[in-house]
Amino acid sequence: MAMAINTTLLFTPEAMAKVDARVIASGIPGPELMRAAGASVVACLLSSWPNVARAVVLCGPGNNGGDGHIAASLLAAFGVPVLRHGYAPRSGTDAAAASATCEHAILPLGDYRPLAGDVVIDALFGAGLDRAVGAEVAAVIGRIAEAGTPVLAIDLPSGLSGRTGRPTGPVISAERTVTFAGLKPGHVLMPGRELCGVTTLADIGMPARLVASDDPLWINGPHLYGPTLPRREAADHKYSRGHLAVMSGPLISGGAARLSAMAGLRIGAGLVTLGTPPGAVMAQSAHLTAIMQHRVGSSADLAAWLSDPRLSALVLGPGFGDLEKARDYAKVLANARRYLVLDADGLTAFAGRTGELGDMFAGETRLVITPHEGEFRRLFPAIAEDETLSKVDRARQAAALLNAVVVYKGADTVIAASDGRAAINADAPPWLATAGSGDVLSGVIGGLLAQSMPIFEAACAGVALHGAAASQAGPGMTAEDLAGLVRPPAV
After folding, report:
1. What is the distance between the alpha carbons of residues 199 and 202, in angstroms, rounded to a whole number?
2. 12, 395, 464, 479: most buried, per Cβ within 10 A?
3. CA–CA separation, 190 vs 295, rounded Å?
């Protein structure tokens, strides 16, 4: 029987509980899984802290505590001094059986005082808790933090929501986390990713066919978009590779549109044209070589240009400036049934008008929006203010409201489609936080749409390839550097 971990799907705590139940119902006993989990924790601790002076296991009353009891028993067998502090397991449970294998008494949680050389194993609550920890736990968390004692968390640091990735109150900050079978949103959404430290995904013998979820939520990667990436053929010509248009702003703010246009060209669009207002044509001409221009001064000009069916996708918003004209242009694009990436001023133009935007793009999904946190809050204040929602929940609700693909940017960019599919991007470097990087992203996504990629897959690929270019650029990167390093993947 194939045993596996799932490195692509993300499992909410509720979805993982269903996986656990399916696995046990298939005939694999819960205590066997607990022993494997405890052994994985021990392997991580001994490889990471080979000179540990004392392992202190903080045990909760449930299965997370059971994993900790197994770890304590194994560590003692290996000659590591062990203490257990916490709560007795519930009678008759797998955790109680695990606790019985350990000779050390469970001392009161509040009695723990960190010593130099300690490594704490956090086996208190894991993903099973989605409320604030109590005062006793909070006090221990405070002492651990003050002492700088390293922590290895089992499943998730206690006090961190596995669903939202946000602390529910006082929270343990772990140097390492060991989780099993599949990652949870809390491992990759911020600030959970940082609170988990280095996360190890361990195989504890669950059958691969059972490590599955009905919730279409993934880590972003080639498994999502790889099969739909544009293929290069010997008979290709510039029009067969798609024509992207980027709408330029006025004279003073044309640089953002140029960044988008260059990114669209480098990602593989056969032609890229700036739709430039008359007063900015000469200024843009001084900067352009392979990128063309088309004079667009009004909605009528844009509609006439769109009579060319080869113009397949457009980017609207970077440095655009005129909010009323942005709304007019978006309506023209929607009526012409073109794919549109709406960013920056294009998003600001629809603050308080999301219903209008959603009505424009009813039917087949042809709209991608790329808001950062501030833009998202201006567009969707009611969604953003609901503290019960995760970033994934928020992106999904916004996508459904607009019939769009939402690229909710940040260190944990979420890509969500109106049909419920969603992905979290977890590997972009921090130096992407620089002026103009979002303009490059909109061009990358627009360039992929121009090449006829499906819209959700184009957004996922755009985010991943944008991050890959930034990783290549390295610290100190500017948006100009980033646009110059965008490349289509080899397929």
Report:
1. 10
2. 395
3. 43
CATH number of 222-485: 3.40.1190.20
Q: Is 410 annotated as a binding residue?
A: yes
Handedness of CA 134, 139, 145, 149 (dihedral sign): negative
> For residues 447 and 93, what is the distance between their CA atoms, to the nearest angstrom?
56
Please indicate if the annotation marks 126 as binding a ligand. Answer: yes
Residue 256, annotated as binding a ligand: yes
What whole-number distance in Å separates Cα of residue 145 and Cα of residue 139?
Answer: 10
Q: Is 131 annotated as a binding residue?
A: yes
Query: Is 372 labelled as part of a ligand binding site?
Result: yes
Superfamily classification of domain 6-215: YjeF N-terminal domain (3.40.50.10260)
214 is annotated as contributing to ligand binding: no
**Residue 301 annotated as binding site:** no
Angle between helices 437-450 and 455-473 (to 10 degrees): 140
* Count of CB atoms situated within 10 Å of the CB of 69: 28
pLDDT band at 477; cut points 50, 70, 90:
very high
Question: Does 436 appear as a known binding residue?
Answer: no
- For residue range 121-170, list pLDDT tens digits in order: 999 998 878 899 999 999 999 999 999 999 999 999 999 999 999 999 99
12 belongs to an annotated ligand binding site: no
Q: What pLDDT, in 10s, does the model give residues 214-255?
A: 999 999 999 999 999 998 877 777 777 899 999 999 878 899
Instruction: Provide the token pair at 160.
Output: 């961190």
Report domain extents, the chain: 6-215, 222-485
110 is in an annotated binding site: no
Residues 82-132 pLDDT 10s? 999 999 999 999 999 999 999 889 999 999 999 999 999 999 998 878 899
Is 413 annotated as ligand-binding?
yes
130 marked ligand binding residue: yes
